[in-house]
């Protein structure tokens, strides 16, 4: 990753600092950009009268905002770098700073994947299946099917999405893909998403039945894994940093689904559960946690509410419960499951284990709206 090709848009922030005569601000930076943080601090302190404190704890998204601790420190403004504003309030004055990357990769490496995935979507359109009359074994098999699990398709459009640093590329790539013969749409999501085509680790609300497959502009597999788990649709990836193209392997998604299946089966006889509530402003789902506690009680099981700002095995594994239900960041249960000695499941998975949800509905990704 060539950090010199990133545009850190600090001018508006520094103008706000000068206008309000801020004396102490906090800078919050995602993990991948922290090596640039000290340089940004130097720039801000040179160009304004403010002192800058780096919020050096891990930062994984706009849901992970600095709040009361910085107020106690006397911070007047938080500059949150590299994420877009969500429909949440941290209680602190916060300015979100755009970071863009000037990569412009060729389409040719990804076109074979897109053609293959369009053919898969067209085949799915002609072989729409229903769930009526499935045996328990057939329903469980459908649950672990990586593609075709969700609602029937009404179209085979290509959904064009990306991570926040590359969203400025989407209009140009929309036109290039149309010229290459694809029917392309840039999905518009719900209130948690600020821009067309944006996807988050916890929210893929732009999906609709007319989209048959996806192209993701970005690096890494964090967003692609969530998107395929949520939609059950094939996805290709084009990396603006390297120009490389690949697909999100359906075999990999099936491995994750088999793992989730095993965890659901393992908690069916569990009697005691720790219900995790995230203390971060964008992850706090108290109402959901309370509903999980009531549901467990309905089935003669015990739930204990555990509130944490950070979730890790060293913080929860020692509690004398049989399993944990996670209502904090949805990706903790998916991405970090192997780190925990006891089963860590999502609210949907608990509902399946209790018989409140049916296997044949397919896997449902835990999403924060």
Describe this protein's structure:
This protein is an alpha/beta fold. The protein is 31% helix and 18% strand. It is built from twelve helices and 15 strands. It has helices spanning 11-20, 37-47, 68-72, 111-126, 136-143, 170-179, 222-231, 250-266, 286-298, 313-316, 331-335, 347-353; strands spanning 6-8, 24-28, 51-54, 77-81, 94-97, 99-101, 157-162, 184-185, 211-217, 235-238, 245-247, 272-278, 302-308, 323-326, 344-345. The strands form four sheets. The chain has a five-stranded mixed sheet, sandwiched between helices. The protein has a four-stranded parallel sheet with strand order 3-2-4-5, covered by helices on one side. A four-stranded parallel sheet has the order 13-12-14-15. Helix 6 links the parallel strand 7 (157-162) and strand 8 (184-185). Helix 8 crosses helix 12. The radius of gyration is 22 Å and the shape is flat. The mean pLDDT is 90.
């Amino acid at each position: 990753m060539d950090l010199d090709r990133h545009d850190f848009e600090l001018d508006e922030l520094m103008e706000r600092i000068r206008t309000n005569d801020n004396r102490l601000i906090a800078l919050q930076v995602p993990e991948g950009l922290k090596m640039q943080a000290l340089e940004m601090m130097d720039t801000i302190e040179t160009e304004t009268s403010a002192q800058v404190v780096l919020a050096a704890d891990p930062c994984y998204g706009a849901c992970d905002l600095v709040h009361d601790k910085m107020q106690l420190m006397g911070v007047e403004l938080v500059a949150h770098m590299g994420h877009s504003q969500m429909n949440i309030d941290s209680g602190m004055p916060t300015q979100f700073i755009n970071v863009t990357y000037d990569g412009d990769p060729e389409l040719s490496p990804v076109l074979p994947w897109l053609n293959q995935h369009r053919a898969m979507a067209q085949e799915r359109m002609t072989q729409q299946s229903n769930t009526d009359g499935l045996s328990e074994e057939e329903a469980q098999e459908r649950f672990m099917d990586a593609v075709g699990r969700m609602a029937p398709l009404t179209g085979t459009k290509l959904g064009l999405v990306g991570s926040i640093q590359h969203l400025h590329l989407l209009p140009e790539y929309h036109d290039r893909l149309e010229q290459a013969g694809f029917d392309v749409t840039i999905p518009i999501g719900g209130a948690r998403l600020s821009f067309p085509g944006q996807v988050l680790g916890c929210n893929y609300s732009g999906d609709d039945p007319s989209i048959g497959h996806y192209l993701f502009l970005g690096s890494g597999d964090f967003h692609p894994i969530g998107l395929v788990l949520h939609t059950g649709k094939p996805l290709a990836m084009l990396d603006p940093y390297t120009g490389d193209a690949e697909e999100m392997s359906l075999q990999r998604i099936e491995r994750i689904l088999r793992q989730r299946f095993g965890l659901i089966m393992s908690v069916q006889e569990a009697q005691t559960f720790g219900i995790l509530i995230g203390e971060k402003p964008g992850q706090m789902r108290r109402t959901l946690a309370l509903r999980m506690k009531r549901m467990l009680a309905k089935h003669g099981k015990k739930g204990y509410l555990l509130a944490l700002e950070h979730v890790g095995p060293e913080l929860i594994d020692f509690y004398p419960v049989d399993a944990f239900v996670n209502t904090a960041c949805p990706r903790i249960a998916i991405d970090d499951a192997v780190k925990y000695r006891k089963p860590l499941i999502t609210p949907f998975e608990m509902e399946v284990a209790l018989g409140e949800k049916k296997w044949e509905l397919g896997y449902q990704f835990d999403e924060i709206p």
